[in-house]
Amino acid sequence: MPSPRGARTGPPAGTAPAVSRSGRLTPVVPALMSLGLGCWGLSRQDSMWRDESVTYQMAHRSMTDMARALSHIDAVHGLYYVLMHAVFSLWDGGLFALRLPSVLAIALATWLVGAVATRHADALTGLLAGLVFALLPIVQQYAQEGRSYALVTASVAGTLLAFDRALARDRARDWLLYGVLALLAALLHEFAILALLANAVTLRLTKAPRTLVRRWAVAAAAATTGLLPLAILSLGQSDEQLGWLNRPSVGAWLLYAGVVVLGAACARFAFGGARKRYGPFGDGGYERGRHPLVALALPVLALPSLLLMAISLVHPWYVDRYCVYSYLGLALVAGPALRRCLTLLAARPLPYRVAMTALPLALASAVLAPWYVLMRTPEARKDDVVAVTRAADELGEPGDAVLFEPARRREWSLSYPRTWGRFHDIALAVSPAASGTLQGSEVSAGRVKKRLLAQRRVLALRDPAGQPLDDTAAERAKREVLDRYFTSCGTRTVHGARVTLYARAHACASHHDGR
């Protein structure tokens, strides 16, 4: 029945109940655990991979040089680079300063997950949901990565809490906060805007009144409008930015399907029974499968990745890290599922409770512990800029020429200018900062050949054996000259890279011999 004119339209039946003070504090526990896990092995054995190196060197550019680069490439990460520039201006703490913002962001996201779950259940459910989120391997990975994805996840988590509060209370400040956080998430990474579509599905599933739908539409439209300038700029950069991507593999589709099925199973187990059967989960006033927490969580879990993967069948834009925030939805339904397990176990004899608690914990520890250790090693990423730098320092001598094959691997050198300053980058025409690019610009194929022929020793930095070779004229010239006029004196193979010393005849001997 429509509301009388002028009357306040209330929230849908069965929205989140009020949360006690203790309930609000409970999510702090998993947040602190997340913080501790994030700080464990944060240096990753003093390693840094190429994408983090881009963050590091972009954050150390002047704002003018950064703006010049962002006008050509990587605008999608522009706000994140500005934030990291501020971090390094306050504290140039190397790898710790690079990754600590991500650690803090995931700890905040963990607290927010717990807060949302607590609103629809009880403190224990919020605690369990937060613990699940903090312990997910993919969350652990990006909690220790100097890229924007952890901050995006925290922003989307804040958006979900603001959205949930706006549906329950229908206050202007909640809708304003929702729109601001949605815009912040999208400015940190544009694909976070897909979370708004997931919220639209939530409105449909909960049969929200038209007044709430209109207010959501206003907030969503404002966030989308605010994103448009960045979207237009980055769309023009997409060929270079995303040209390396392929269509989603069968494995990617299977992983996506498995995660969604797991989330749906958790939701059905926790909420699929008769109304009011499970006391902690609200007033039971929703239809079967329509509990507000399920309606909030499952669209976030399923929809953003599905849309991006579907688009990628035509224009490959999908990488799993672009939708890390979707795992918020998995934690929001896994927490209540675990809560129901504990409720069912409470009625069993003590030995049974102990056995059925200890066995899953032991199994989970056996499976997850090796992953947690692996993620804190250099091998957990594609390459290791620090190891490449160390190998070049050991193999080369001051004044040696250095050659990057392909040119984009110059990113290995940009975070350690003191070490690489000992060598002569013979193919470089204009530096990255001066050219407004990430890796700088190189001279023509003819000039590369001429410069190479004038060298006595050359350090060649390459991808691992078996990787596709770039077929440009300049890259072919590099390979042809080295193969024809130089002798390979030795190769250091490190994680994700090869460093080979080439020299003219009788020029291989150096003080490095015997190492």
Q: What does this entry show, briefly?
A:
The chain has 515 residues and is α/β, with parallel strands linked by helices.
Q: What do these coordinates show?
A:
The protein has 515 residues and is α/β, with parallel strands linked by helices. The protein is 59% helix and 6% strand. It is built from 22 helices and 7 strands. The protein has helices spanning 21-25, 28-39, 50-59, 63-70, 78-90, 94-120, 123-135, 137-143, 149-169, 172-188, 194-205, 210-235, 238-242, 250-271, 292-311, 327-346, 350-374, 385-395, 417-420, 432-435, 445-453, 473-485; strands spanning 401-405, 424-425, 428-430, 441-442, 457-462, 487-494, 497-503. The strands form 2 sheets. The protein has a 5-stranded mixed sheet, with helices on both faces. The protein has a two-stranded antiparallel ribbon with strand order 3-4. Strand 1, helix 19 (417-420) and strand 2 (424-425) form a beta-alpha-beta unit. The radius of gyration is 26 Å and the shape is elongated.
